[in-house]
């Protein structure tokens, strides 16, 4: 990376030279008047991005997709793989040492995942290095999804019926107004 600075003005250089005889300079302290004024640095990266530019760099291109680059070591992917291990585990209990070994990651990464899942009450500690899944099972999740779909379908039907009733009320009001108008003629 390259950092560029604006050149120091002549007045600032003169102040710096005069301040060198100062007692603060002899003690190793630098006065603010003698140091050059900080300038806005322009960062020139390989992507062509500059600080202050209206075009921030995008993540696209940095991640090479689900088969390389940073994606392979992402916490999101690791969490998915950890949850797959939990599915395979008997009674949903897994040893964290075995999980770290099978996933080929440091144990602290496993702790990152388990601490978050414990915080949202989806995992529970079962001893020193064991955790158990406390969230919904696949069957429960499927049943919930089906019941949610049924509720949404019923809500859609109720909304359609309510819309039809509202249309009927509006049509009745229009008919009533027209009949009153004809009666006045």
Automatic annotation (TrEMBL):
This protein's record includes keyword Hydrolase: no
**InterPro entries recorded:** E2F (IPR015633), E2F_WHTH_DNA-bd_dom (IPR003316), WH-like_DNA-bd_sf (IPR036388), WH_DNA-bd_sf (IPR036390)
SMART domains in the cross-refs: E2F_TDP
Region: Disordered; residue ranges are 1-38
- Which Pfam families does the annotation name? WHD_E2F_TDP (PF02319)
* The keyword Transferase is annotated on this UniProt entry: no
Query: What family does the entry list?
Result: Belongs to the E2F/DP family.
Q: Which PANTHER family match?
A: TRANSCRIPTION FACTOR E2F (PTHR12081), TRANSCRIPTION FACTOR E2F2-RELATED (PTHR12081:SF18)
The molecule here is called: E2F/DP family winged-helix DNA-binding domain-containing protein
Per the UniProt record, the source organism is Polytomella parva
The opening ranks of the lineage are: Eukaryota, Viridiplantae, Chlorophyta, core chlorophytes, Chlorophyceae
């Amino acid at each position: 990376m390259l950092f560029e600075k604006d050149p120091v003005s002549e007045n600032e250089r003169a102040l710096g030279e005069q301040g060198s005889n100062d007692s603060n300079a002899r003690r190793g302290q630098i006065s603010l008047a003698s140091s050059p004024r900080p300038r806005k640095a322009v960062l020139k990266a390989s992507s062509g991005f500059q600080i202050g530019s209206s075009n921030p760099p995008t993540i696209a291109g940095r991640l090479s997709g689900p088969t390389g680059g940073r994606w392979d070591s992402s916490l999101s992917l690791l969490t998915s793989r950890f949850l797959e291990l939990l599915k395979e585990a008997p009674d949903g209990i897994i040893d964290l040492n075995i999980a770290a070994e099978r996933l080929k990651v440091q144990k602290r990464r496993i702790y990152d995942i388990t601490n978050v899942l414990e915080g949202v009450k989806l995992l529970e500690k079962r001893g020193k290095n064991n955790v158990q899944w406390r969230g919904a099972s696949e069957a429960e999740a499927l049943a919930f999804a089906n019941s949610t779909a049924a509720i949404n379908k019923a809500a859609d039907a109720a909304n359609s019926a309510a819309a039809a009733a509202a249309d009927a009320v509006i049509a009745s009001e229009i008919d009533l107004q027209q009949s009153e108008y004809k009666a006045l003629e």
